[in-house]
Amino acid sequence: MAELRPCYAEADWAGRIEYLNENENYYYSDGLELVELAEGYAHMIMPLQPRHMNSRGNVHGGWAATLLEQAAGKAALSYGSFVVPEQLSVNYHDTCSGGVLHAVAREKNRGRHLDIFGVDVRDDAGRLIASGTVTFYILDEKIDVPREKRQREDDI
User: Fold this and answer.
1) Are 38 and 78 in contact (CB under 8 A)?
2) pLDDT tens digits, one per residue of 32-49
3) Phi, psi of 105 (to 5 degrees)
């Protein structure tokens, strides 16, 4: 029997990143990946694919908003409790037609029940594509993910 990894709460930051990436089916299939995590902070990337583009050949705003919300969510999860999104506000500044988008989420305010994050989404050249604010409700439920390494269908 393989040795179990530490639980989420006891894992180091690299371990927490591994847990979150392997247990998030929603964004994994579209190339979104958490690459940095710290308390109240997350950096995610999204390699743009043809299906992410609108009819003009630019990244669809919905994908930029998805990346923005997911990055904020991972920053909120850094504390070890599950959260539920309450509010999302997105501003679109520019567009891009390829490369990798980078979303950096930073905590702005954490209360007893609400956590608020500011997020910037930039392209490879550092141009601001979208920015926004996401508010989460903090649940009293601690994150508990499988301690056995999960194998995905895409990895087989």
Assistant:
1) yes
2) 899 999 999 999 999 999
3) -110, 130
Task: Tell me how far apart the alpha carbons of residues 152 and 28 are, in angstroms, rounded to a whole number.
Answer: 10
20-36: b or e for each residue (b if 16 or more CB lie within 10 Å)?
bbbebeebeebebbbeb
Question: Residue type at 45?
Answer: I
- The residue type found at 103 is A
Pair 117, 70: CB distance under 8 Å: no
In single-letter form, the type of residue at position 147 comes to R
* pLDDT at residue 23 greater than cutoff 90: no
DSSP assignment of 35-95 equals: EEEETTEEEEEEE--GGGB-TTSSB-HHHHHHHHHHHHHHHHHTTSEEEEEEEEEEEE---
